[in-house]
């Protein structure tokens, strides 16, 4: 069972203590039943009754201590285990290859992870209590066997039959639980479409209505799955209740007719059976929770497995080696090729072969039409994609393995689909005055302020967000700066400022700058301009010169 594997993997020592406490709780609970029976039988014997009364109080105290202790330790164990799980998955995501992350649907990962982790955590108390209950049942069953083997055989046969029926019925529920999880992820997808595509739906009523109708269908499908699962649980619970009454019927009315001594013990046996089957019913009610928790853990395990396939090794920090990379002289592409994986019957887009040398301190512009391969080239340049063939080298050294880790740390990048962080992660020691000075330089002082280690707001226009991203890149102060169509959302003033001031200053500071641009009126500031067409370098020229193939 995934739940027990998960718990034992996180802390087997604590689990053993919980099991021990649960065992003591089970023995104490059974002792209470036995003492109640003994007290009832010795009601007229004051000495025996007093002794049983004291023993009852001891057993009750022991039950309270061990039950609460086991439940508390169980909660601590699960909080720790879930915390480690979250950290582990976060770490796996950040160490995965970009290609692996691009195959995952972001909203599904977030929804499934939060829902599944929440399911595991929320079920903790129920499942720990169920574990205690199962041990109580075991001890109580042994007590019943000590009283009457015949009653034990009948009750265990009935309980086993009921358990088997419930297991078979709940086994078919797994697909419904998985279906519910997938449907909830689909619902999140529609919300994402609506929020991110709000302008597109607001200006197209047919699209808006079609999206709404599709969302309604998903809600209805989810509701139907939920109703089916709930209806099946209700029916299963009813069957269990009927089965319990049949066990009691057989024990109280039928067995005394065939076992002469049974009638003398019927009250004692009935008390034990009532406790036993009541405990059984309570435990069985946790089966759906147990099944959902197992399904959640399997879902998380599947995500981890997918991430494991794309995890890259992270070498330990090596300042001297990083300094060696920082002092590079040139980056070279030698006959480098890359192809996206095939999708269905369509062949994947390819880039290359590319032969290109970028000396340190170069201001390189890249141009080309949509789909020409510019963004893919940037991902190869920054080491986010691995080439299928050819060589990416720095000063003649192949960039692969551990080298890739140090190579990537040379870059400050603003991609066209960039993400803006609210904090300068990795540059926490930066002087706030320096950041606010750059904010004023970018004419953002009336919109945002850097205070207490974070930007006061990210609620800005696309062009303003790009200026804030540029501030973060300048603060990073990396040897290589990469800008993917940064100026596309800027007014003429900031375009001119970007090309003629910022890029020129970066070059004069010894930075290597690679910028994707279509602003041919500013190409004169570049050292070199190259053009991509159909995934290949089709033209190249010095800055300000006409492009030639």
The CATH level-2 architecture of the largest domain is identified as Up-down Bundle
Overall structural class, as computed from helix and strand content, comes to alpha/beta
The helical percent reads 55-70%
Q: Supply the number of helical segments.
A: 18
Number of discrete domains: 2
Task: Kindly identify the CATH topology of the largest domain.
Answer: ABC transporter transmembrane region fold
CATH superfamily of the largest domain: ABC transporter type 1, transmembrane domain
Q: What low-confidence regions span 5 or more consecutive residues with pLDDT below 50?
A: none
Report the C-alpha radius of gyration, rounded: 34 Å
- The strands making up the biggest β-sheet line up spatially as 6-9-10-3-11-12
| Overall geometric form | elongated
Secondary structure tally: strands: 12
Q: Taking all residues together, what is the mean pLDDT?
A: 80
Which percent band covers the strand fraction?
Answer: 5-15%
Order of helices and strands: HHHHHHHHHHHHHEEEHEEHEHEEHEHEEE
CATH class of the largest domain: Mainly Alpha
The largest β sheet comes out as: 6 strands, mixed
The CA-CA distance between the termini, in Å, is 64 Å
